[in-house]
Specification:
Layout (H helix, E strand, L loop, with lengths): L3 E4 L25 E3 L8 E4 L9 E4 L14 H4 L12 E5 L1 E6 L4 E7 L7 E6 L5 E6 L17 E6 L8 H10 L10 E4 L1 H4 L5 H13 L8 E4 L4 E3 L2 E5 L8 H9 L3 E6 L3 E2 L4 H5 L17 E2 L2 E2 L1 E2 L5 H17 L4 E4 L18 H16 L4 E4 L13 E3 L28 H10 L9 E3 L12 H14 L3 E3 L8 H15 L2 H9 L12
Parallel strand pairs: 1-9, 11-12, 11-24, 12-15, 15-20, 20-21, 21-22, 22-23
Antiparallel strand pairs: 1-2, 3-4, 3-6, 5-8, 6-7, 7-10, 8-9, 13-14, 16-19, 17-18
Helix pairs in contact: 7-8, 9-10, 10-11
The protein binds 4-nitrophenyl alpha-D-galactopyranoside.
4-nitrophenyl alpha-D-galactopyranoside (9PG) binds next to loops.
């Protein structure tokens, strides 16, 4: 017996499926029903997480959505408040797009929004009481004039019946063309300070690693030196520097550039440390809950962070100023812009007529304008649909770490299975499940390689490094290069040539993509 998949608009308010202009289907399919195989139990659901770090995988229809057990510590960061987290098996949600697929019958359905300019689009699929897909644009205005109709984003939906083509391609390409994404730079190859030094970083550490990169220029030709978190006095206070950076970061940019390399800098322009000067001097720039307390942007840097309200013009100006300073005054042509979701938390915005998605999108447009078109922007902690066409690369998974499974302060048991926390296993999963986005929407950033001795076994280090290299995305080593054992350096030397291929070669490879490397939702 064949069963039907139907789109309907019950159960969640507000749902605008009737206002969404279905491409392809038009009025030809008034019942919006699709035959998707003989048994709902055979279906797979592709669950796309909201932002860079969010869990993404294809789940079987009888399984349960993974969710964090850390509640208000994690969820403000990685979960879209407008997308439900189901606890029952057979109930799933996804952000921006999804794929339903029956490997047994070789039938499937791709459903997704073309943009996130107005709303964070959400999708939910349940196999009971009968299999159905719900699609809605989050109605998240803090104040909506009654009777006023709201614009939403285009939505695309199509069935596929064969594995002779990449089923996601028409969707991914439609999204790219909507955002006029046409060409991609070559994938960055370099060094990043974070996963060895964390915030205990000094200007001297940057100099020493730079010297090592120069010394290895022939055996390991890197081109980017990216300074991560740890130079600023506090997250939010971007123009005051820690004692370990006595001259700030501008001389480092000079030095890196002088060595023929590209200087990169980490910034998190929308998130605010509660004990920063910024929070103290401009309490009116902070996004607040209805209680008046600043919003919770998640537990990071051992505190509950908060965020700017970008509908306060001075707050948005401040964020843009920092980008302008980093690019044009300090001399960084590469910026890693992190914790971008923080601009779109639920709260009492000064301008309540904008949706959270609009606030973030406008914030990102402003940052791109401040950076100029020539600057390489990497989006991190970024709701995927919101940065399309505005960044050159996007982090597509959780942070890697020196341990395979998530752990925190040495505790493992409590954090086991956490889906979005820093861990090699979480980074690798998303590198695989979001591989189709690479060079269609942006350059994928699978996060850094950690080569040196950690809790990871040598086999785990090799696995992590191989997955990163084969992804074709950014290839950044995050070790103390001056103490890296030669046999660990060899891993990077063996893999780097894969990334070095010119964009032309990569395009050619992709056009001739071997069938066995295609996104295989059966697997
Ligand atoms: C700098 C880091 C690095 C890293 C980024 C981001 O879930 N968490 O608490 C969480 C904390 C930090 C974090 C990601 C998640 O890392 O991804 O590469 O730049 O900030 O502070």
């Amino acid at each position: 017996a064949l069963w039907h998949l139907s789109l309907h608009n019950q159960g969640r308010e507000p749902i605008w499926i009737d206002q969404i202009r279905l491409l392809d289907l038009g009025n030809d399919n008034p019942k919006r029903q699709f035959i998707l195989g003989s048994s709902p139990q055979d279906l797979r659901f592709y669950l796309n997480g909201w932002q860079s770090w969010s869990y993404t995988a294809a789940l079987s229809a009888t399984s349960t959505m993974p969710r964090s057990r850390l509640g208000p510590f994690q969820n403000p960061m990685v979960v879209n408040p407008g997308t439900p987290l189901f606890r029952q098996s057979g109930h799933f949600s996804s952000d921006f797009f999804t794929v339903l697929f029956s490997p047994k019958d070789n039938l499937g359905l791709v459903a997704g929004f073309l943009s996130q300019q107005h709303h964070f689009g959400s999708l939910a699929f349940s196999i009971t009481p009968q299999p159905h897909l719900q699609v809605w644009a989050n109605g998240d205005h803090t104040r909506l004039d009654p009777g006023k109709s709201m614009e939403t984003d285009w939505f695309m939906l199509y069935p596929f019946t064969t594995d002779h083509e990449l089923p996601l391609s028409p969707y991914l390409e439609a999204v790219a063309s909507f955002h006029q994404i046409e060409q991609f730079p070559s994938s960055p190859r370099g060094w990043c300070s974070w996963y060895y030094y964390y915030t205990k970083l000094s200007a001297e550490d940057i100099f020493q690693n730079l010297r090592q990169i120069q010394a290895w220029q022939t055996q390991l030709p890197l081109e980017l030196v990216q300074i991560d978190d740890g130079f600023e006095t506090q997250v939010g206070d971007w123009t005051t520097f820690k004692a370990s950076f006595p001259q700030g970061v501008a001389p480092l940019a000079q030095e890196i550039k002088g060595a023929g390399l590209r200087p990169g800098l980490w910034l998190a322009p929308f998130i605010v440390h509660p004990r920063s000067q910024l929070a103290r001097q401009h309490p009116e720039w902070l996004l607040r809950r209805s209680s008046g307390r600043p919003v919770n942007a998640g537990f990071v840097w051992n505190t509950f962070a908060t965020a700017l309200d970008l509908t306060v013009p001075e707050a948005l100006d401040y964020a843009a100023q920092i980008i302008d300073t980093a690019v044009h005054k300090w001399g960084f042509p590469y910026l890693k812009l992190d914790f971008l979701y923080a601009a779109a938390l639920p709260g009492r915005y000064r301008n309540p007529t904008l949706t959270r998605a609009q606030v973030l999108r406008r914030g990102m447009e402003t940052l791109r304008q401040a950076a100029g078109d020539e600057t390489f922007l990497l989006g991190c902690g970024a709701p995927l649909g919101s940065v399309l066409g505005l960044v050159n690369a996007t982090r597509i998974g959780a942070d890697i770490s020196g341990s395979w499974q998530p752990e925190y302060l040495g505790h493992r048991w409590f954090f086991r299975g956490e889906p979005h926390m820093p861990a090699a296993v979480n980074a690798i999963r998303n590198t695989l499940t979001r591989a189709p986005l690479h060079r269609r929407w942006w350059i994928n950033d699978p996060d850094c390689l950690i080569l040196g001795p950690t809790k990871l076994s040598l086999a785990e280090v090799q696995t992590l490094a191989s997955v990163i290299a084969l992804s074709g995305g950014s290839f950044l080593i995050s070790d103390n290069l001056t103490t890296l054992p030669p046999e660990r350096l060899k891993i990077a030397q063996a893999l780097l040539p894969l990334i070095e291929a010119s964009p032309e070669v990569i395009d050619l490879l992709e056009n001739e993509y071997p069938a066995h490397l295609r996104l295989d939702l059966k697997g």
